[in-house]
Amino acid sequence: MNDPANAPVPNAALQALQQENRRLNRAVEELSFLNDLARAIGASTNLQEIMQTIVHRSLHAIHAEQGVITLVEATAKNCLSRANKLLCQSTDKCNFITFFYAVLDHQTHQLSYASAGHNPPFLISAGKSYRQLERRGLVLGIRDQIDYEEETLALQTSDLLVIYSDGIIEAMNNWQEEFGEERLLEVVMKNRQEKAGALIEKIVHAVKQHAGQAAQSDDITLVVLKKTS
After folding, report:
1. Between 31 and 158, where is the model more confident?
2. CA dihedral in degrees (143, 101, 129, 177; nearest 10)?
3. What are the DSSP E strand ranges found in 48-185?
4. Count of domains in the chain?
5. Is the separation of the CB atoms in 169 and 178 below 8 Å?
6. Which domain holds residue 204?
7. Mapping DSSP to helix (H, G, I), strand (E, B) and coil, where does residue 158 land?
8. Model confidence over 130-155: pLDDT tens digits?
9. In this predicted structure, what is the pLDDT of residue 20?
């Protein structure tokens, strides 16, 4: 298995990996850094790569319209609303994408996010308590006018954020048992002291152990953010 891709986020470790049904890609998530903001963009889709490309282009269109100076004012929820509108204008309404968009301000240590029907990520605190980021709106591409909710929270040193796709929790074994969120959380909690890349490898290994000889039915995407200071 290839090593997870990484990005130099100040005061944090960010790793990402995607394993498709038949091949492994290292270029998993798009990571862009503007005005000292680290923006992590992750998509999980029931379509081909072209759908992901459309969403990324939609987000770039927002950047182009607003410019670098005003990009800091482009909230996560506004970016999703704009991406959804552009996607609806470009595709059939039968097509849709789940999407999680997060903005990390490494100066204030605040994370703002909005979600379009994506699986709620796990946020594990240094004190070993956890919660899921459950603010979610409709998936992208169904209706062109959608207002998304946004939540902002303060990250502390050693906080851990795990973003995952259906391919993780819906991975099945030969007895049609899903890996599930409970097993995922168990692996994360057991290995939370590991570095971000090592944690991704532990999760993928656990999923493969669970699936055994059963064929992989969906793409596996993971993004792990660990606050280091």
Report:
1. 158
2. 60
3. 97-105, 110-116, 122-124, 130-132, 151-154, 160-164
4. 1
5. yes
6. 5-227
7. coil
8. 999 998 899 888 888 899 999 999 99
9. 65
Residue 216 has what pLDDT? 75
CATH of the domain at 105: 3.60.40.10
Can you read off the two tokens belonging to residue 160? 């851990």
Tokens read off for 85: 């509108």
Residue 132 one-letter amino acid: Q
- Structure tokens belonging to residue 40: 């992590």
Side by side, the strands of the sheet bearing 30-34 are 30-34, 37-45, 97-105, 110-116, 151-154
Judging by beta carbons within 10 Å of its beta carbon (0-12, 13-18, 19+), is residue 220 exposed, middle or buried? Answer: buried
Q: Fill in the amino acid letter for 174.
A: N
Residues 6 or more apart from 193 whose CB is under 8 A from it?
none
163 and 211 Cβ atoms separated by less than 8 Å: no
- Name which of 158, 165, 166, 154 is nearest 124 in CA terms: 158
Token pair, residue 194, equals 């590991």
Beta bridge partners of 227: 12
- Output Rg (C-alpha) for the chain, integer angstroms: 17
**Beta strands, E only, 65-178:** 97-105, 110-116, 122-124, 130-132, 151-154, 160-164
CA nearest to 161, candidates 121, 108, 193: 121
d(CA 75, CA 59) in angstroms, rounded, equals 12
Rounded to two decimals, the pTM is 0.79
Average pLDDT over residues 177-203: 94
